[in-house]
Amino acid sequence: MPENKKSMTVHRFLILLLAYLLFCVAGGVVVSGFLLPGVYGANAAAKRMLPSLTVENVDFNVNDLPQQSRLYASDGHTVLATFYAQNRVVVPLKDVSDPMQKAVVAREDRRFFEHAGVDTQGVLRAFIQTYVKQGDTQGGSSLTQQYVKNVLMNQAEENNDPIAEYHAREETIARKMREMLIAVQMEKRYTKAEILQGYLNIAQFGTNTYGVETAARRYFNKSAKDLDPGEAATIAAVTKNPSKFDPTVDPKASQEQRDIVLDLMAQENYITPAQRDKAKAKPLEAMLHVQDVNAGCQTAGDAAFFCDYVSKQILNSKEFGKTQEDRNKLLKEGGLDIYTTMDVNANNAAMNAARATIPVEDRSGFEVAIAAIKPGTGEVLGFGLNRVYDATENSGGGTRTAINYAVDQVDGGGWGFQVGSTWKPINMVAWMKAGKSINQALRTSTSYPKSSFNCTGSDGQQYAFGTDSWHVENSGGGTTSPESPLQGLIRSHNTTQASMAQQIGLCSIADTAQEMGYHNSAKDQMDVHSTNSFQPTMTIGSSSASPLTMANMYATIAAKGVECSPIAIKKVVNKGGKQIQVPSANCHQAIDPNIAETTAYALNQGVVQPGGEASMTQLDGGRKTFAKTGTNEDTYMLTGGFVPQVASYVAVGNAEGSVSFNGMTINGITRGAWYGMYIATPAWKMFMNNYLNAAGIPADNGYGNPDPKYTGGAQPQAQNSQPLPGQQQPRRR
C-alpha cells in the first residue's frame, strides 16, 4: 500500500526531529547538553553523505548569474536588441530601494536579520503544520535557504545536469537538509547584505523575469532603486508563485498578494500604517507601466536584419568561444554590452529606400537588398530589405523572413545575386595591375576560344576551361572593335572585358577580385576559383555575391586600395567590465593606391557622366560620384558605388531563383524590359542622398585622380560591328 506523502511513521518522525535539532544548534538555538553529541554526529554524517554540497563547492558570486546581453548602435546608447536565456540585469544592493529590500524580507523571512541561516521557529512551525497536524505543506525555508535553492538550480542548469536540477527542486527531506547545511555555512562566510543582494538578483519575479532590476523595468518602467512601497510589495509578492502572481497574468490575484505584503511590511514597522493604506488604495492596474520583454532580433524593428547579422558574427567567430554552443551561451547569458558598427541614419535610409523602391507587399515579389560599408574600416553601416524580419517558425517566407539577402549564406543570407556589369571595375583593376593602360586599343570579337583563358593561379594551380568557344556580345548586339578598356567600362561592353581577360589571363582577374574582398555568397563555393563560378563568363558578372561583399569591393576602391574584412562589432564588454577580443577587419593595402584612384576616375569621369551607362547615379548637389550599374540578363538589377565616406550596393531580383523582369509591373510601373538604371539605380541614389544628408557628411571632391602611367595611349576610333545572326547572348550592362 503506497505511503501517504504526509503520513507519520516513527522512522520519519525521528529523521525530521533529528534534522530540526541539528539545525537548531547550527542556527544558534541552545538545546539540552545531552543532545549535542548526537546532533554534531548527525551534522558530520550529513557532510559525509553530501561531500560536494558545501558552500565551498557552490558558486554564490552574483556576477556569475546568467544575464541579458545588450546590442547597441554605433552611437553607443541606442539599444537595438537584448539576448537572454534568463532576462536578468544584476545590480548591487545600493541600487535597490529600501522599500524593495524590506518588502522581500517581510514576505519571505521576517527574522532574516536575526537568524544564522535557518529560521528554527519557521522550521518547527512548518514541521508541526505539515507532519503533525497534517495540514497544508509548509516550507519554513529562510531567505538564505531560498537563495541556496535558486543557486543550486541555476548551477545545475548552467552545467546542463538534469539530475542535479531534479535534486535541487525535489520535495524531500534530503533537499531541505542540504539547503539548511549550506545556508548555515553561507551565513558564516557572507554578510546579510550580500545574501540579500544575491537573492534579489537571482529570484524569479514573473514569467521570464529574473532579478529585481528586470522586474522593476518590466512592470513599472523604472529602476529598482526608484521603487516605492506599493511597487516593491507587488514585485515581492510574485516569488511565491511566479506564473500565477505575475501582475500581467492575473492582476486581481497580484493585487491581493501585494496587499498581503503591505500588511506584513507595516507589521514589521518597515512602513507606517498611513503608507500602507495609501499604497493599498491605489488599484494595481493604475500602477503598472508594463514593458515588452521579448528577446532577440525579433524585437529590433528596422534594425532586425542588422541584429541578425551581428548574432551570426558572434556564433561564427572563435573570439567568442570554442564552439557555437559556447558562443550562444555567452550571447544569451554573458551579460555582454555589444557595441556595433550600425549607423542608425544609414540603416534607416537603407530600409526606407528598399521599401520605397518595391513595397513589402508588391505583387512582383522581387527582393531589394542594400548594404552599406565605411571604406577603410570594414565597418558595416546598415542594411535595407523590403521584407519584415520574422524568425518565428510561422514566418513561412514570402514578405516575412529571417533571411538577410544582403549578406553571405554563412551569415544568414542566401545564395547571392549574379552581379552583372557591376563586376567590370574588377577587370579594370586587374588590367592595370598587369601594367597596362586603360586607353590601350583592343581588338574585340564575339567569339573566343575557351582555351585562350587557361591560366595558372596565384596558388600555382592550373585552370583549363575547355576546347570549345565562348560566344559573347554586347547588350545591343555584336561588338565594338577596336575599343579601349576605359570605353568598354563607360559603355559597359562585354566583348571588351573578354578581350582584356584573354590578354592578362582569367586567373589574374580572379586573384584581383579576391584581393579586393570578393568571394561568392554560397557557403560551399565561397572561393572565387570554385568550379561553378570560375569561368570566362565571370568577367561579365556571372558569379553570385552578396550585396555586402560587392559593397566591400567598391569600398576597397574608395579607400585607395585598402581592403578590410566587413565587421559589425566595434567593442564587447562582459559583465565583469572587461573587454572581449572581437573579430578584426584586418585592413591592409590590397591594391596600388594609384590603380584605385585611376579606377575611381574611370567611374566618375566616364561611367556616371552623360553618355555613360550609369549617368543616372549622379548624386545631388554636384557631389563627386563613383558608380556602376548592372543587369544580369533580365533577372537581376544592380548598382554599386561610393563616395569616399561610404560605399554601398543594391541588388534587385528574386533571391530564391531566376525570375524575369520582362513585362512585370513593379510599384505601379510596367515595362517590357527592365534595366538596373530603372530600379536599382534610383534605390542606390535614394539611399546615398538621404544618408549623406541625414549624417551631415560633406562633399569630398578631391578623390579620383588618374595616374598617367595607366592612362597613356591614344583612344582608337571605334568601329561598330553588326550583331551576329541568331545568337541569344546574356545581356549584362
Automatic annotation (TrEMBL):
Residues 722-733 have a biased composition (Low complexity). This is Carboxypeptidase. Residues 369-658 form the Penicillin-binding protein transpeptidase domain. It catalyses: Preferential cleavage: (Ac)2-L-Lys-D-Ala-|-D-Ala. Also transpeptidation of peptidyl-alanyl moieties that are N-acyl substituents of D-alanine; [GlcNAc-(1->4)-Mur2Ac(oyl-L-Ala-gamma-D-Glu-L-Lys-D-Ala-D-Ala)](n)-di-trans,octa-cis-undecaprenyl diphosphate + beta-D-GlcNAc-(1->4)-Mur2Ac(oyl-L-Ala-gamma-D-Glu-L-Lys-D-Ala-D-Ala)-di-trans,octa-cis-undecaprenyl diphosphate = [GlcNAc-(1->4)-Mur2Ac(oyl-L-Ala-gamma-D-Glu-L-Lys-D-Ala-D-Ala)](n+1)-di-trans,octa-cis-undecaprenyl diphosphate + di-trans,octa-cis-undecaprenyl diphosphate + H(+). It comes from Bifidobacterium xylocopae. Keywords: Carboxypeptidase, Cell shape, Cell wall biogenesis/degradation, Glycosyltransferase, Hydrolase, Multifunctional enzyme, Peptidoglycan synthesis, Protease, Transferase. The lineage of its organism: Bacteria, Bacillati, Actinomycetota, Actinomycetes, Bifidobacteriales. Residues 79-265 form the Glycosyl transferase family domain. In the N-terminal section; belongs to the glycosyltransferase 51 family.
